[in-house]
Amino acid sequence: MKTKLYSPNTSSLAYPVGTTLDRFIKLKQEEFQFASGELSQLLRDIALAAKIVNRETNRAGLANIGGAFGQTNVQGEEQQKLDVIANIRFTRALTKGGEVCAIVSEEDDEVIDLQNGSGKYVVAIDPLDGSSNIDVNISIGTIFSIYRRVTPIGSPIQPEDIMQPGNQQVAAGYVLYGSSTMLVYTTGHGVNGFTYEPSLGEFFLSHQNMVAPSDGNIYSVNEGSYYQFEAGLQEYIEHCKAKLYSARYIGSLVADFHRNLLKGGIYIYPATQKSPKGKLRLLYEANALSFIAEQAGGKATDGHGRILDIQPTALHQRTPLFIGSKNMVDEAGNFLKKNATTVARKGVLVQ
Ligand SMILES: O=P(O)(O)OC[C@H]1O[C@](O)(COP(=O)(O)O)[C@@H](O)[C@@H]1O
Ligand SMILES: [Mg+2]
Ligand SMILES: [Mg+2]
């Protein structure tokens, strides 16, 4: 019997599979009559740094750049050597690129003011996400958000340039250093993914117009903290089990998010007794992925309201995150609403 080879239906795709990231960015820019090209260049700068971090990640075990750096960051978390290296690589690329005036990074206590009079953009970045997974060879990532500064270009940076809600992002993306390395981004016109071909040193369009399934059967939450979850969430998790959903949790937000974006599912990092505001950071983790989720037709909340509408009040602010397939995020929210007590049914008090 002859085997029928799988061939994707490419008739609805606007760009050929295999278009390079550079070319894609250029073609996209041409679609917007007044685009100046600076945002395009900024995306290229990020892609370049991602290639370098990809190389460092791949050789971490050989080049003595795995393991702890020996210091803690502003959130009191132990920095890994690769956290520091990735931070240097991305901030260097953004500084040299010339389009950025300020950077907020997980690894820096304060805003990095680049003193760049012509920089129009502010970038918030988690240079290396899931860093506890580096030394055990499990997928890690980078997450970035891009904002246009709101005060006049050339004037000193002001807090309102930095503390913008996620609904003001002009672009956001992530890099997944996984079984292959991918860059996924949005500029508010859908979501596209590019796979890195290391021998050619290029990202190629592989996932055009990504669409999040509106339903799914994967739930991703650190169930080790179950006894610290509020009652409504405990009930939602039991509902997932009753429905025989699959539990999948890598412990790298980018990887967990990416899987659920492709397959359908929900990722939850809720408030716990240990972390009453959750663990994830609004500015450089939740906002970017929420923008991407919405652009792909998914949803992101803090369990109650839209992540992208949260007005930040602190640079390293944390937020609970419920993100992924729209119907699943809605359903989880309904469980929280139905049982609004913050007391766990089994276990301890959350607040
Ligand atoms: O171990 P936990 O508490 O489940 O936390 C896992 C979460 O923490 C993070 O690792 C935080 O990211 P960083 O590595 O950038 O600090 C997320 O990627 C991940 O989803
Ligand atoms: Mg992170
Ligand atoms: Mg990090």
TrEMBL record:
Enzyme class: hydrolase
Known EC number: 3.1.3.11
Catalytic reaction equation(s): beta-D-fructose 1,6-bisphosphate + H2O = beta-D-fructose 6-phosphate + phosphate
Keywords: Carbohydrate metabolism, Cytoplasm, Hydrolase, Magnesium, Metal-binding
Family matches, as CDD domains: FBPase (cd00354)
Binding residues annotated for Mg(2+) 1, in chain numbering: 106, 126, 128
Cofactor-binding details, from the entry: Binds 2 magnesium ions per subunit.
Cofactor(s) of this protein: Mg(2+)
InterPro entries cross-referenced by the UniProt entry: FBPase_C_dom, FBPase_class-1, FBPase_N, FBPtase
Domain of life: Bacteria
Binding positions for Mg(2+) 2 per the UniProt entry: 126, 129, 285
Cytoplasm recorded as keyword: yes
Pathway assignment: Carbohydrate biosynthesis
Similarity section: Belongs to the FBPase class 1 family.
PANTHER family hit by this protein: FRUCTOSE-1,6-BISPHOSPHATASE-RELATED, SEDOHEPTULOSE-1,7-BISPHOSPHATASE, CHLOROPLASTIC
Subunit structure: Homotetramer.
Protein name: Fructose-1,6-bisphosphatase class 1
The species this protein was found in: Mariniradius sediminis
